[in-house]
Every structure is written in structure tokens, then in C-alpha cells.
Amino acid sequence: MELFYTYPKFHRVSFTLIAQKHIEYLRKINGLKVYELDELLLPTFVPVSKKKVIIHPAIFIMHKVIQSRTDYFGRFRKDYYDWWRKNWDELIGIDVCDSDRLSQFAVDLLNLTDKVITHSSLCVDVYKKSGVKKKIYLLPHGVDPEWYELPNTWEIVPAAKASPSLMNIYLYKIRKNKKILLYWLWHSADRKGWNEVRETYRRLRKERNDIVLVIKSGAPNPVEYQQVMDLGAINLYGWLSDYEKIMLYDLADIVLNFSRGGGFEHCCLEALARGVPCVANEWGSWTDYVPEFLRIKKGRRVKPLPNNIVHVGYGYTVVVDHAVEKINDILDNYEEYKKKLEEYRVKTLSKTFRWDIIAWKLYNIVFS
Question: Is residue 251 classed as helix, strand or coil in its secondary structure?
Fold first, then answer.
């Protein structure tokens, strides 16, 4: 069997990483051939014979398809679109939700596909309430099986080269006897709850001196890091390999997910897969995998993405008072939380949130 998969192949974003994992594991199933197309190629590409195509992310790419089906004056040519569409057997769209409602613009584009896939039960509900009429499938993200199986990387012989910065953080943690709070910040600081992270860290530092905030960013010295430099925060930046990411999580004591409504927040799942507590907002897609004992009360209702033309609804901040209380409780009762998390990790997470398992689910959705 054969399948096309179109995604941001030459423009690396989070969609790229998820799509490449889908492709990697789909190719291991029944000799399936998966042909990759860059997101910008689909509007002008026609297969020799009818094939199924996965479109990821569906809203953006289908918009590009529609834009390409216009006349000289910019008017939509339905006959031109229909000709393009009849050359495909089935359009299977994958996308996310970053708030509690999609715009009509986004809904209309999703309804052009034959099947719609999204990553959480929250998003399935958002899609339905927003008006998506096509059948919606739930397909979560995952991690490679070794994320659950590999021993703590700081207790074994290294299996690969690692950034010297990781060793520096390790030595700092050991010599200063610090607990590491890890916060991932690639973009969209407001949506990722930076204001609440900053306030939580400031309050915690007034109460205890045994913690340090490590901000993982793409570029060095982001403005958010500058706002907490006076409290001894550390900035780790640049691209990390999967093995280096595992090493980073193995250094962390708690991972912070204060997102107001952003996608799946894959870093939180990665932390839990490594047995590291990830405290998270009680509202969001991550509630499919974050256990209740690690959730923080939701606070103000806000727009995660103001003026966005796709994600037009609302999300929630976290309650900082409860965040401080929860983090203190975890640090003061760390072994108890680790034991509960280990049981949950083995019995629940590892049975569902693995790329090899997810690939089979995707395969069955595509060829059902």
C-alpha cells in the first residue's frame, strides 16, 4: 500500500517533528510506502493514480490549496479545485486546537477533508462544537519506546555525545544541592503562561533557596530569562537531540506546563515518560495524560491567541497561589509523588502514548 504525507518538511516547526514520527513508524507497518511532500507542494501536485494523503496541519495547507485555485482577479475557481480534488482518493486532515473554539474560516477548511484527526479529547469536543461536520478521530502524540525503558542517563555510561551545557547544569545541581524547575519556551511566551511562571518562581524563591529555574529556549538570552536573572535562573538554548532531551529531563525535578491553551504541550508528556513530575493547568489538551495529582487550578479566562484567525476562543491561566502550593508539596514529598507517578507511567502512559502504538492507530484510521 501507498500513502502521501504532506507537512512542513523544509520549515521546521512542531508540526514537522510530529509528522516525521508518524512517517517513521508508519513505514514499519506492513511494508507501507509513505511518500513525503512539503506543505507548499501539495496545491500543485497531482499523483499519477489516486492515493490517500495526510495533510498536516490541515487548516494552513488547505488554505494554500484554496488560494491556488483562483482566477486572474483572485476569485475562487470551484471547477479548478474540483479537478484537483478528484485526483485524490481521500484527504485526511490533522490539526490542533489552541483555544475552546475554531473560527468559521478554519471549520470550512477542515470540512473540505474526508477525515479529521486531532490530538486530544478536548480538541475533538472543540471541533464538534465549532461546526466540523466530518468524522473526527482522536490521535494523541507519543514518545519513542526507549523514553520509558532507558535508565536514568546520569547513572549509566553515556550512549551518545551531549552538550557541555548539560554537564554544567548537572555539576551546578550537585554542588549547590539545587532542585531544578524546567520550563520550555520556544515561542509564544504569553500563551505558554510565562507571566504565571515568573510570578510563581519569584514567590517560591522567597520561601526556599534550594530551587533554580532552567529556561529551555531556542535563541540565547531571551527577554523572559532576563526578567529572572536576578533570581539565579539558567538559560539553556539551542537544538537538542532526543538523547540530550532525555538527559535534560533526567536532570529536572519538576517540569512546568502553565500553558493557557496551547496544543498538546509535548514537553510535559516527555517529562512524565521519564518519570519527572509535570505540573499543569487543569484545563487543556494535556489533561488526557497528566494525572489529577499534578494538576493546578485554572484561573482567569483569557484569549491564548488574540487576533488569531483560526483559534478564536478562550483558555485559562493557572492560579499562582495553587501553583506555589503544589510545587512546594511535591518538593517536600518528592519520593511519594515519584512513586505515584511511576505507577501511572508504567500502567497508563506506556500503554497509550508511544509512537509505535499511535502509528497503528493512524494506519487504521487512514485505511478504514
Answer: helix
Q: How many of the other CB atoms lie within 10 Å of CB of 30?
A: 9
Q: Which residue has the cell 461546526?
A: 131
Indicate the angle between helix axes 242-251 and 266-273, nearest 10 degrees: 70
CA nearest 284: which of 269, 294, 298, 303?
A: 298
Cα–Cα distance measured from residue 224 to residue 360, given in angstroms and rounded to the nearest whole number: 40
Q: What grid cell was written down for 321?
A: 497561589
**Quick one: which of 25, 16, 4 has its CA closest to 357?**
25
- How do beta strands 295-296 and 298-302 pair? unpaired
Produce one character per residue of 251-273: b if its CB has 16 or more CB atoms within 10 Å, e if not. Answer: bbbbbbbbbbbbbbbbbbbbbbb
Amino acid identity for residue 308 in this structure: N
Work out the average pLDDT over 73-88. 90
Q: Which residues contact 88 (CB under 8 A, 6 or more apart)?
A: 47, 50, 51, 52, 53
* pLDDT digit string, tens, across residues 114-154: 999 999 999 999 999 999 999 999 999 999 999 999 999 99
Length of the chain in residues, anyone?
Answer: 368
The whole-angstrom separation of Cα 204 and Cα 318 is 15
Q: Which DSSP string corresponds to 80-124? A: HHHHHHTT-SEEEEE---SSS-B-HHHHHHHTTSSEEEESSHHHH
DSSP for residue 198:
H
Closest to 315 in 3D by CA, of 279, 268, 283: 283
* 8 A C-beta contact, residue 240 and residue 182: no
Number of CB atoms found within 10 A of residue 334's CB: 14
Q: How far is CA 207 from CA 202, 224, 248, in A?
A: 9, 22, 25
**Measured in Å, how far apart are the chain's first and last C-alpha atoms?**
13
Q: Which residues have CB under 8 Å from 201's CB, separation 6+?
A: 181, 211, 213, 228, 231, 233
pTM of the complete model: 0.95
